[in-house]
Write a structure and sequence with these properties.
The chain is built from 18 helices and two strands. By secondary structure, it is mostly helical. The protein has a two-stranded parallel ribbon with strand order 1-2. Helix 3 runs parallel beside helix 13, helix 9 packs parallel to helix 14 and helix 9 runs parallel beside helix 17. The longest helix has 30 residues. It is globular and about 65 Å long.
């Protein structure tokens, strides 16, 4: 048996990550569905290990010591994105869309728990197949899996990945038809062909909220200094977050390891918005978060016990269609109505179905297909990524924590 230490395991994870990118580039279907490269590569290794296990072979032992720190680092960067000033930039439409998304996440958990109970399962299994993996995606699912495992959900990690992958596929498939139906069914016309729209949320933050101008002490390289400052800010938030999580634990609250760090990061971000003391670059922090997320996902997936899914197949075949139906109903009725019943609202509904079942990438792909055919939707391109990429992950983590403590 080959035993890899911490550094070797991380190196292997990096190789597997780029194998995932290579596979996605060569399989157009994977690219169209926005399947994350870390998931593709990690699941490939997990499948190989599972196949060898079925033959009585155990040939690889991995050191996953860095898995938890990478996960906490990613969610700390999510905390830094929870800016009240950024929410203000988007105006009332962003707040309304965030409220709708939050209520939808609550309904996903209520529906999942109800179906699980009706099938004689732990209600937390339904919560795990709810906003944890659908609104949250594979990263949130794998991050919370140990907590659900401790609460009695056997095979939580495998269940999280299976549900998240199914959600990504569903979110990529239904968004376009939903938007098209609304545009034709309600007779919604697009705005002027010349209307411009931001396509990347970082551009909105930089141009409308304003990332601080990078500065560095004399003699220091600006880019290196900005990167160093962002890394230290993340580490400090993780350090202080450990104390916050310990405080919550002393009060008897069951929380995932990253909640404290995420809350500290949000406090630091909003303090920086008010005072400008830290002058942190959100783009740099997001880039660090992307790296941490990719490596965390690969590490978590390479050690996934796929064989634990066998006993969960039947409940999933009932819960997942119910969840898809819920999002379809909300996308066709509630979202277009509260967001203005116009063309932009139809495009937002398409994006809503994407990130409430899959990821923000699904949402952007859904909306991109519509605007390419019918014309630009500037309000949708402001509202959807701001909620999907910045705010819903933060709120969803708090919602999940509440449901875990409710059903535990």
């Amino acid at each position: 048996m080959i035993t890899l230490d911490l550094v070797n395991t991380l190196a292997l994870a990096g190789i597997v990550l780029f194998v995932g990118y290579g596979i996605r580039a060569r399989v157009p279907l994977f690219a169209r569905l926005n399947l994350p490269a870390p998931v593709i590569g990690g699941l490939l290794v997990a499948a190989l290990i599972t196949g060898m296990r079925q033959r009585g072979l155990t040939v690889l032992q991995l050191d996953t010591t860095l898995q938890a720190p990478l996960m906490i680092a990613f969610f700390t960067t999510v905390g830094f994105g929870a800016s009240v000033s950024l929410l203000r930039v988007g105006g009332p439409a962003v707040l309304v869309f965030l409220v709708v998304s939050t209520l939808a996440a609550v309904l996903q958990n209520v529906l999942g728990a109800a179906v699980a109970l009706a099938m004689g399962q732990n209600p937390l299994m339904g919560v795990l197949a709810g906003s944890v993996t659908l609104t949250g995606g594979p990263a949130t699912g794998l991050a919370f899996a140990p907590l659900f495992e401790q609460a009695g959900v056997h095979g939580a990690a495998a269940l999280a990945v299976a549900t998240a992958m199914a959600g990504i596929v569903a979110g990529g498939l239904i968004g376009g038809p939903i938007g098209t139906h609304l545009i034709h069914g309600l007779g919604l016309a697009p705005g002027p062909k010349g209307t411009s729209h931001p396509t990347v949320m970082a551009k909105v933050a930089e141009e409308q909220l304003g990332d601080p101008s990078p500065r560095a002490p004399a003699g220091e390289d600006v880019e290196s200094y900005v990167l160093l400052k962002a890394r230290v800010a993340i580490l400090v938030a993780m350090w202080a977050g450990g104390w916050v999580s310990g405080l919550f634990a002393s009060w008897g609250a069951t929380l995932p390891a990253y909640i404290g760090a995420m809350l500290v990061a949000a406090a630091l971000r909003n303090l920086d918005d008010l005072t400008g003391w830290l002058r942190l670059s959100q783009k740099t922090i997001d880039d660090i978060g992307t790296v941490a997320l990719s490596l965390f996902l690969v590490l978590a997936l390479m050690t996934l016990k796929l064989w634990e899914l066998a006993g969960l197949a039947l409940p999933l075949t009932v819960i997942l269609p119910a969840q898809v139906a819920l999002v379809v109903v909300l996308s066709l009725t509630v979202v277009p109505r509260v967001m203005g019943r116009d063309y932009d609202a139809a495009v937002m509904s398409s994006g809503f179905s994407g990130f409430m079942l899959g990821t923000t990438a699904n949402a952007m792909a859904n909306m991109g297909a519509l605007v390419e055919r019918y014309g630009p939707a500037p309000r949708a391109y402001l509202v959807v990524p701001m909620v999907g990429a910045f705010f819903i992950d933060f709120i969803n983590a708090l919602l999940i924590t509440g449901f875990v403590n409710l059903f535990r």
